[in-house]
Amino acid sequence: MKQLINTEKTYGNEIFTSLTCAKEVISGKEFYDCRFESCDFNEAQFLNCEFNNCTFVACDLNNLNVKNSKFLEVEFLDCKIIGVNWTLAYWRGMLLAAPITFKRCMINSSTFYGLSLEKIIFEDCRSHYVDFRECNLSGANFSNSDLRESFFNNTNLTNANFKEAENYDINIKNNVIKNATFCRYEAIRLLSSLDINLID
Asked: 200: Cβ–Cβ under 8 A, 6 or more apart, which residues?
């Protein structure tokens, strides 16, 4: 399978299982309706690639370089995707809401700085030290995710869903949270940005 990715330009309806592509460069490839299962893309480079309606399941994508690659209707399930700079991907002219979805993934130390990704899904994810500053994440789903030490500043979180999310630190004066959903017991964290004293 590794050799196959290196020789062909376009792949459709393929299932790739247990590929070992750590630190490899995958350039100029197009994948349509493909599925990647238990593949190792640790420190790999996806350069000028296109992934359309693809699914990654239980893959290692840590420190992946996504420079100038397109992701359209792509799902990441049970993947490790630590340290990825998503701002390097190709987002210009994207009209789709939620072009990528993360479920039960580890996305620590990644950045989405300044991106407009309405209705993006981060469901049941570990999202520590993730940069969401200057983003439009209206309608985003952060349900059941751990957002410890993640960064929100001038972020549009209108209608976002934080149901059962935890450890978020969102300054309500510096972010837009109109109609966002929070659990009562965690929503008290929103008050930490106000100059008030809380007592039991």
From this structure: none
Predicted confidence at residue 69, as pLDDT, reads: 97
Question: How many other β-carbons are positioned within 10 Å of the β-carbon of residue 117?
Answer: 22
The residue behind tokens 């983003």 is: 135
Please name the residues in contact with 35: beta carbons below 8 A apart, sequence gap of 6 or more. 14, 15, 16, 54, 55, 56, 57
**Spatial separation of the C-alpha atoms in residues 200 and 193, rounded to whole Å:** 18
Task: Calculate ∠ Cα 116-119-121, nearest 5°.
Answer: 105
Strand, helix or coil at 111? strand
**The model's pTM:** 0.90
CB–CB of 33/12 below 8 Å?
A: yes
Q: How far apart are CA 74 and CA 79, in angstroms?
A: 13
